[in-house]
Write a structure and sequence with these properties.
Bound molecules: FE2/S2 (inorganic) cluster
Number of strands: 4
Oligomer: single chain
Strand order of the largest sheet: 2-1-3-4
Order of helices and strands: HEHEHEHEH
Helix content: 40-55%
Radius of gyration: 16 Å
Shape: globular
Distance between the termini: 28 Å
Strand content: 15-25%
Number of helices: 5
Length: about 150
């Protein structure tokens, strides 16, 4: 039996698995992801982490392009409010996320496909929980583009 046939025969073959891009700032959220890994905390492989120097570096195009190219969701994970290593990067990221949410909603796309979360370097368990929550949210929304 080929690998494809095995996958199609699997009872989970019909389960939608979203692809999620998660921009993590190198100082806090990426360290939290590292900690979650070191603690062997499970979180869904749906989440593809992209390390950035600061969430302030994530611009509107970084949020829109993955959606255009088929990602089901794009999230940003930054330092806790007031703790950005570059002072206000996470606040700027939050404004951009809000702007993109309004933009995609106007285009008929669910705004929950884009969002921001905050995790400090010591928040490994919370980071893993964020990944599980985001994945569940996007699983419930279904694919961004229909297969038709
Ligand atoms: Fe973490 Fe700016 S350095 S959000």
């Amino acid at each position: 039996m080929t690998e494809t046939a095995i996958r199609l025969a699997s009872p989970v073959a019909d389960t939608f698995e979203p692809t999620i891009i998660l921009y993590c700032c190198q100082w806090c959220s990426y360290a939290a992801a590292d900690l979650a890994g070191a603690m062997r905390l499970p979180y869904p492989t749906n989440v593809r982490i992209v390390q950035v120097p600061c969430t302030g570096r994530v611009d509107v195009l970084h949020l829109l392009k993955p959606l255009e190219q088929g990602a089901d969701g794009v999230y940003v994970s930054g330092c806790l409010p007031g703790e950005c290593h570059y002072i206000s990067g996470n606040l700027k990221a939050a404004k951009r996320v809000a702007r993109v949410q309004k933009l995609i909603e106007a285009l008929g796309v669910e705004p929950e496909r884009v969002g921001i979360v905050y995790n400090s370097a010591s928040m490994g368990p919370q980071f893993a929980q964020c990944c599980r929550d985001i994945t569940e949210r996007l699983r419930a929304l279904g694919p961004i583009y229909s297969k038709d």
